[in-house]
Structures are given as C-alpha cells and as structure tokens.
Model the fold of this input.
Amino acid sequence: MELPEPFHLPVDHLTQLLAALQAQPTVARERFLRQFVEAWLV
Done:
C-alpha cells in the first residue's frame, strides 16, 4: 500500500485503517506500518 505525500488521516479514518490492518497477515501489516512510520518521520 502506497501513501500519498503529504498524508493526513482524520481519527475516524485512522481507526478504519487500523481495523483493516488487523485483518492482514502479520508480514503485510508490519511492512505497511514500517512504511507509514518512515514516511511520518520524514
């Protein structure tokens, strides 16, 4: 999953995103979260 730059997530969208991530396999979830954090720290 690619993130547009810059990205802003309202709380309700973030909640939906986290729920969708929980349904993903662990490897996919960790990969997405790593990309999310790296993009956020830039």
